[in-house]
Design a protein that fits this description.
With 207 residues, the protein is mostly helical. The protein is built from 12 helices and no strands.
Length: 207
Amino acid sequence: LQRGEHRPAAALLARAVAAAPEDAFAHAQLAHACQAGGDTASAMGHYRSALELEPGLADAAAGLGALHQSDGDFPAAGRRYRQALAAEPGHPMATAGLAAILEIEGRFDAGYALLAPLLEAGAPPPGLAVTGARLLRRLGRPGEGLALLERATRPDTLALLQQGLAQLEQLPGMVATAIDTLDAHMAAVKVPEVVGTLKAMMQMLES
C-alpha cells in the first residue's frame, strides 16, 4: 500500500479477510486498499464490516465518512466522522472532514473551533491548513487565513508562494492561467504538496 500498489495489496488483503472474516482490522485495511484503487463499492462494504465487528475503529469510520462525503451524502458523512472522533478525539481525517461538513452547513465558528487544536500545534498539514484558512475567510479573518497557509508551507517554498500571490494580484481576471503557470513552477522544484495550498489562496483572492 505504501508503494501505491493498490491492486496487489487488495488481493493479498482479500485472502487475509477470507482466512479471518472476523478480523475487523483486516476488513479496514482491505477497504483502504479498495478505496485507494477506486473501488468505492467494495471499500464501503468492508468499512461497514469492520465497524460491525469493531465500532470503535476510528480509521474505518473516518474512511467511510470520506466515501459518503465524496458521494455528497453529508449527513451520513457527518455521522461517521463523529463516530471516529468519539473513538479517537482529534483524529486528523475525521476532524478535517467534519469541519468541511460544518462549513457546508454554514456553521463556520463550529468548524474552525474543531480544527483549532490541530492548527495551533506547530506547522499543520497543508490539507488542514487549507480548510482552516477557508473557514477563517468566511469568518471575516482572511489575514489570519493567509498566515495559516504560509505557516503550513515548507520554508523553501515561501519565495515561490509570494511570487505566485503577486502574479495573481496583478492578473485577477486570469486566475486559470496563473494556476497553470504556478503548477509548472511547483513541479519544476518538486514540491507538489504546495499546489493545493496555492490554489486555495488563488480562490481566496478571486472571490
